């Protein structure tokens, strides 16, 4: 079973719907015991980086950290991916998971913020998550903060400069865009994760 | 490169699409779920479903339509019309919408924008603005209308979008009441004025009559997205054709769509 972690960070129906459509068993849950037993964990999330502090308060952070340590495949989406970094300018003092190093920052003032719409992936590295997705493929973004390029960046996107659109190391995966809203390309990415 | 979005709008009454959209190979051209899915397969970047039902009883039918449409839709899906409270919005999100669009209720109580944005994020809150050009003003001015464009509010459109953005709106759906239904082209002056007054994305609506109108609204109106209800009445066979015209004009679009 795939746990879709609910920490009151917006609407998770779309993510569940997409995983259901792909034919994998999943459940939206805020119960640490359910997350602990899950074969895979997805942390979605929209809105403010500060909402991730709810993961600390509910005991979910400890369970997620444990799941990651025991090699459970983990997938962060949007704010869920930003949470995998150290921190974000959006909420100074709120700690991320630090599985990837660096701070998420606001887009430069030259470009309109939020970055909303379909933009292109530039594939940088071999990736299990992006298997079968060509460079130049379009995916749907909606965010005002973005993650820096790191050694584990497998795809970047350009908007006021390059940023990490997808990161991957071992069993840890993150995407800034919304695979559940990115048509066939997005479904392929979700399926790649669900099939691991 | 970030692309300009082409958004298909379905006007729904009592669970049925009412503005005609000619579409081949549909079992039922009035079914919102089937039309939404067909549009997305044909290359629409986003789907908006606007409920124009007036009565309470019909809301339940709408939610069922939203649920069915959302089930097989994997592009952004917005639902608007008749959302008056956080509870109304929650019901629509629970049924599978990614964004909601609010209009009259936001004008009556702008705190509604903030309350929905706090719970679901600003990216999920579209404020729809119906603007009508004022005839005798010095320079161009537009008044905001409510109640589906019927009721003058006395509010200046530019001033209202500034307030709505500060209260947490994530996008604007800007409809020109002067152009809506005319096929004479989008009001690019209005669109550019609103784009210049806000930093969030603006979806232009009202007046699309041909592919060249989309080119103009992206170039001169500087719109981030353009919406049309009856795009297939232009003599276009598909979104692909529209996007080909835009590509030829050097406007970035999602391709292949």
Tell me the strand order in the biggest sheet of chain A: 2-1-3-4-13-12-11-8
**What is the third-level CATH name, the topology of chain B?**
TIM Barrel
Count of structural domains of chain B: 1
Helix content of chain A: 10-25%
> What is the H/E string of chain A?
EHEHEHHEHEEEEEEEEEH
Structural class of chain B: alpha/beta
CATH class of chain A reads Alpha Beta
The N- to C-terminal Cα distance of chain B equals 15 Å
The named CATH superfamily of chain A = Class I glutamine amidotransferase (GATase) domain
User: Helix count of chain B?
Assistant: 9
Strand order of the largest sheet of chain B: 1-3-4-5-6-9-10-11
Terminal CA distance of chain A reads: 12 Å
Oligomer: heterodimer
Q: What is the largest interface, and how many residues per chain?
A: A-B, 33 and 34 residues
Mean pLDDT across residues of chain A: 95
Q: How many discrete structural domains of chain A?
A: 1
Strand content of chain B: 15-25%
The low-confidence parts of chain B are: 20-24
The percent range for helix content of chain B is 25-40%
Your description of this structure?
Chain A has a single domain (2-194), classed as Class I glutamine amidotransferase (GATase) domain (Rossmann fold). Chain A is 23% helix and 29% strand. Chain A is built from six helices and 13 strands. Chain A has helices spanning 13-21, 32-37, 53-57, 60-69, 79-82, 183-194, and strands spanning 2-5, 26-29, 40-43, 74-77, 87-88, 103-106, 115-120, 122-123, 138-143, 145-146, 153-158, 162-169, 172-175. The longest helix of chain A is centred in the C-terminal third of the chain and has 12 residues, at 183-194. The model of chain A has no long low-confidence stretch (mean pLDDT 95). Chain B has one domain: TIM Barrel (Alpha-Beta Barrel), CATH 3.20.20.70. In chain B, α8 links the parallel β10 and β11 (225-228). In chain B, α8 packs across α9 (239-248). The two termini of chain B are 15 Å apart. Residues 20-24 of chain B have low confidence and may be disordered. Chains A and B meet through α1, β7, β9 and α6 of A and loops of B.
């Amino acid at each position: 079973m795939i746990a879709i972690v609910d920490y009151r960070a917006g609407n998770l129906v779309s993510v569940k719907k997409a995983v259901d459509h792909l034919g994998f068993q999943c459940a939206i849950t805020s119960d640490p015991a359910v997350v602990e037993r899950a074969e895979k964990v997805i942390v979605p999330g929209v809105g403010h980086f500060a909402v991730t502090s709810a993961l600390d308060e509910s005991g979910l952070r400890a369970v997620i950290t444990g799941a990651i340590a025991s090699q459970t495949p983990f997938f962060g989406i949007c704010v869920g991916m930003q949470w995998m970094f150290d921190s974000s300018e959006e909420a100074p003092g709120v700690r991320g998971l630090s599985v990837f190093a660096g701070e998420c920052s606001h887009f430069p003032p030259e470009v309109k913020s939020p970055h909303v719409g379909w933009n292109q992936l530039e594939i940088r590295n071999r990736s299990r998550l992006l298997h079968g997705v060509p460079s130049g493929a379009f995916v749907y973004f909606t965010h005002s903060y973005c993650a820096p390029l790191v050694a584990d960046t497998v795809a970047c996107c350009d908007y006021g400069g390059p940023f990490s659109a997808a990161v991957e190391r071992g069993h840890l995966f993150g995407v800034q865009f919304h695979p559940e809203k990115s048509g066939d390309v997005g479904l392929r990415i979700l399926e790649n994760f669900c099939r691991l | 490169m970030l692309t300009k979005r082409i958004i298909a709008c379905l006007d729904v009454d009592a669970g049925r699409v009412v503005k005609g959209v000619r579409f081949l190979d549909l079992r039922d051209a009035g079914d919102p779920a089937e039309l939404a899915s067909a549009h997305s397969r044909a290359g629409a970047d986003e789907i908006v479903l606007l409920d124009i039902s007036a009565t309470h009883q019909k809301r339940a039918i709408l939610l069922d339509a939203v649920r069915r449409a959302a089930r097989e839709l994997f592009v952004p899906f917005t639902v608007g019309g008749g959302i008056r409270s956080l509870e109304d919005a929650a019901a629509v999100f629970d049924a599978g919408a990614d964004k909601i669009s609010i209009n009259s209720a936001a004008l009556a109580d702008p705190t509604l924008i903030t309350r929905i944005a706090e719970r679901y994020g600003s990216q999920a809150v579209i404020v729809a603005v119906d603007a009508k050009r004022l005839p005798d003003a010095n320079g161009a001015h537009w008044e905001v209308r409510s109640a589906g464009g019927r009721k003058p509010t006395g509010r200046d459109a530019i001033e209202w979008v500034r307030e709505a953005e500060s209260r947490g709106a994530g996008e604007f759906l800007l409809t020109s009441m002067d152009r809506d239904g005319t096929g004479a082209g989008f009001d690019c002056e209005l669109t550019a004025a609103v784009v210049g007054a806000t930093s969030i994305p603006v979806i232009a609506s009202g007046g699309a009559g041909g592919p060249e109108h989309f080119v103009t609204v992206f170039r001169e109106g500087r719109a981030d997205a353009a919406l049309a209800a009856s795009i297939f009445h232009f003599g276009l066979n598909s979104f692909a054709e529209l996007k080909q015209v835009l590509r030829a004009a050097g406007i970035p679009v999602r391709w292949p769509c």
